[in-house]
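Journal club side-thread
Mid-discussion, someone asked how the predicted structure for our own chain would compare to the paper's figures. Pasting it here so we can look after the session.
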Amino acid sequence: MRKITHLFGDLLLLAVSLLCILPFLYMILMSLKSTINVYDFSLSLSDLTLEQYRKIFSDAAFLHYFRNSVIVALAGVALTLFTSCTAGFAFAKLKFKGNDKIFLLLILTMLVPSQIILVPLYIVVRGLGWVNTFKALILPLPGAFGVFIMRQAILGIPNELIESARIDGASDFKILRTIVLPLVKSAMLTLSIFTFLGAWNNFTWPLIITTKESMRTLPLALTTMKTQYDSDVGLTMACAAVTFLPPFIFYLFLQSKFEEGVALNGMKG
């Protein structure tokens, strides 16, 4: 009876996995075809072509979108790691007045839906003259979530290790750089993946804050492709595939460290 139960569970998981994979398989196969029919789906490999990918990569506007997404995602990761590591270290290991209260207020901001702050954020950014700039796309990316992850990771570092470094005359910045960060690499990689995925797939904020084609990011290219080439489903799917693959590859590259970081943060939380 137990074997039958395990077999049924395995078959159920396999069926769910196939259902999850099917949309991606559909996207890839359709991107290798030139068709106006969204239902023209077959596993035949006889009519596959890379023409759709050649077409989108020969489009100057698409290349601008791709370049902007790479810049925003990588710069967002770097900025988020810097602010989250320094703030996380301060909240975890530095004693100052109001430490816990300030951290609590910071965490409470995670309860506010991001859609609520879009209008105030736009007003502030427009007042600073940052519309259609990388500053407007990158600077809002760091948030309380990153500070929380890094604080939880840094809390696990023994205080004795940090105190001994202070006795040797090391400054707080040197302690953070030489002692703390090497010990929380898994958490940093976890935060990097979350930030990269969020920045790469962000659609609403770039749509609001950019009006020039040269400053828009890759997710916006899907709407442009659909408008310009509404009859070519394959071209739209090729654009979707190019949008999907970079964060997917980024995750696969850091998968083991990502899982390790999530497990450690879960145990420390």
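Post-session note: The chain has 14 helices and no strands.
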